[in-house]
Amino acid sequence: MNRATVFFVLVSLSITWGEMGTCGNCAKGDLSITELTEARIQFIKQQILKKLRLNKKPAVAVPVNSLPMPVAQGQTLSHGTDKPPEFDDYYGRTEQKIIFPVEGECLTSGRYPFTCLQFELPPDVEPEEVTVVELWFYKERDPFDEYNQTFVISEAAHWDSQQQFKKTKPIAIKETDIGEGWVRVELAWAVRVWLEGRERLHTLHVACRTCQLRRAPLSFHEKHRPFLVLYTKYAGKRRQGRALECGSNTNECCREPLYVSFRELGWDDWIIRPAGYHAYFCKGSCLPISAVTKADSYHHNIIRKYFYSVSNDKKAEFKPCCAPTTFSSLQLLYMDSNNTVTQKTLPNMVVESCGCM
Fold first, then answer.
1. H-type helices in 161-318, by residue range?
2. pLDDT tens digits, residue range 239-274?
3. What distance in Å separates the CA atoms of residue 145 and residue 29, rounded to the nearest whole number?
């Protein structure tokens, strides 16, 4: 990317995230404050869709309010710092996938109460990306519960792609003292092996060795139905910036609040978390270009190099704008058209600091 291209990109960002009216390059015309706010909101909507590689919001068949409680309440969200580390990319980066198995038939039975869960692994996850995999299921109350219950999770007997019959193979054992509630079982090793084998269709055989019931006490009520969470690697560098917040007596370049509500956008039918977020934008006055070129920051260095590379008559046309200098990411938990819940981190969605350029 040459200097002129970089400068054009920086100025283009200032038109939407900046004040649109502090200088000649950012003319706001006859737009009112309400119209400017609406323009920024529309820009943010398009950015979210593009970063998710979507043309429009997905058509979701499963209502968000019918999801299992741990998913709806954000209990499966990746743990870590409040703000995810930054990375130099445009599109969102996947951090987790949530799959909803269906109750299916098993090719073989067993001596203990059991049920079988059928599901399909997502095609866009590589085995080396998987860090943690958890099976969540809701244990119903067993009137014969006296001590801990022991669940055995196995890969159910099946015919593989080479038409060879695979017997039921235990992959995890979970002992729990939960009388009624959510149980989590770690399955990362098995899922990595499945992904390496490029086999996406699988069935889990879940048996309760200590139950006296005729079936395993797993609930399939819509709020309690089982699900599988795949957490994937996320690495990057954090970019930090200090923002001057706008106030009633602030005239210089500063950061102004801008809250985006997904309910007001009509997107709460597919975005699960968050309910909205603070995007912010920049506004305020700037010093002359000569002062900007003396400042020491990455974007000022770009401006300085470009400024001194053009002719003197073009230098007179430069008028600094108040615009974002650093951004941070936005984490979204959403439902796609395949009824798969995905957590992605979208880069450069929150204005962290502002500067003149």
1. 188-196, 289-292, 298-307, 312-315
2. 445 568 888 888 888 999 999 999 999 999 999 989
3. 72
